[in-house]
Every structure is written in C-alpha cells, then in structure tokens.
Amino acid sequence: KVDRDAVRQEYDLNGRYVVSFLGNFGLIMGLETILETARIVRDTDPEVLFLFVGKGVAQPMMEGKITAWCLTNVRIIPYQPRSKVPALLAASDALIVTYMKNDITLITVPSKIYEYMSSERPIVAGVEGVIAEILTEAGCGLVSRTRDPKEIAEHILYLKQNPEVGQEMGKRGREYAIRHFA
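Given the sequence above, the corresponding structure tokens read:
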C-alpha cells in the first residue's frame, strides 16, 4: 500500500489538485493539447498542477511552450524507475491522456491506460477510437473526442469540484481493469 501523503510531500504536491501524465513524451501523444489545457486552467484555478513524469522526443517542445506561455502550473519530473510509478499515480488526483488523431491511434491503446485504470483515479482524455470506447464503457473518465483543450479543462475542473464523482470513476476503472485486463 502506497502512502499517498508521503509521496505528495516528497514531490511537493500538497495543496494542489494534481493531474498527471506518466510515460513517453512522444510526438503522437498530442501533448501540446495538455499544455493548451494547462494554459486555460492556469487562469481559472491556480491550485491545479499538471505533472508530467517521463521523457521523450516531445520534451523540448513542451519545455519551450512552458516557458513561452509562463505555465507555472506545469511541472516535468524526469523519467522514474518502474517501482516509483504506483506511488506517483497514487499521489495524483486525476490522470490525463491525449493522442493525436490518425488511423493508428484510433485502434491502439497505450499501456498507460491499463495502469491508469488500475490506479483507481479518474481519467481525463483527449482521444477517440478504442481508448474512448474503453473509458466510456468502464465509466472511469471524461473524454473529449474532439481533443478540445477548453472541454478538457472543463472536465478537470468538474472532477476537482466533485471529488466523489472522481472517486466513483476511479473505482469503476479499477473494477473494469481487473475484470477485463487482469
């Protein structure tokens, strides 16, 4: 069992509503959508922190936008050992995933989806195709099929304002993951 409070203390996350993306910072992930969302949320609710944990080819673009847009509500933590992932998921309030629109992303599911669902956290997604179908069927998150940063921001703020809804979504996601992917 992970000590959520200790992990939040270790990574200086106390007092924040943490929306995390863990994994590969790949170009196909559409991470600029998350950064656009962070820009919208920054002006609405300064308690929301977007936490990226990982590495990848999109990192220079991400760092450039964080600086250019003064995204004080975004933090990047370098890639962590696999053993740290459950703790970082537990320290999060919500998890986020986006995928660029193309033929491949409509039919693939990144492995992070299974980890996200297993972590009992609500998922906010800018996706369509198979991922959107799984999240919708499981009832474990809020999906923007158009990948609209404004809609994604609204989803995040809704979950922050309604923690019991997020907890229910998290439970449903975990139950679905155990039933279908264990």
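The radius of gyration is 15 Å. Try to locate this feature in the token string yourself.
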